[in-house]
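fyi for ur records
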Amino acid sequence: MTFSSVDLKSFLISLKNAIETCSEYDIIPHIDEGNHKPLSVCDDAFGICKCTTTIIFGEYESNTSEPVSDGLLNYLLLVSPNTTTFWNFKRKALLNNELSVNPELRFTQLILNKYPRSYETIFQRQWIIHRYSYLNDHEFLLSELKLCDKLADKYRCNYGLWQYRRFLLLHQQNPEVNCSFLFSLRNYCYSFFYPLAPQLQSIFWSQDYCFKSATQY
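which gave:
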């Protein structure tokens, strides 16, 4: 499969629309038969055919002297979210007012739904929240902690995510939010250790233990 310049532009526009309307995505295997589509959208999710990877990364590598378009950058990050250089391009564009903040937050959440352990994506989200004063928004903080719960359910031993949650808590003193953290930490301890040693249930279900753990974390 090859992309002409027109095909590539059309693909990136379709990808941009999918990013704006969907909350899940995946990289799907290439099947060289039938009505092949590089991008498939179904309900609230979209799939990027794996055959596009070599083509579009080749496009990026062959045009290193030119600024990377946001459409191309979105693709690169969806496929390779732990590449610091790509996120640096995003931060530069935000600082130059070339991108809007809220869509970028939504974009990081889209990636984290697929790659909850992507530390570079978590850091990008943290940078945006800190840079653009979201830490002063109580409702946003509560929704962000709920997002942390959702992502932690996918992979509990997620150091980057727990560090991010700690960052959120260190920048506010609201008791309701702190209680939310303690409750989540208690549930985490219970769900992680209970299968290993059921006799520890009473220990990790203790509020005193959770509070001590939270203050030492």
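Residues 1-80 form one domain. thats all i got for now
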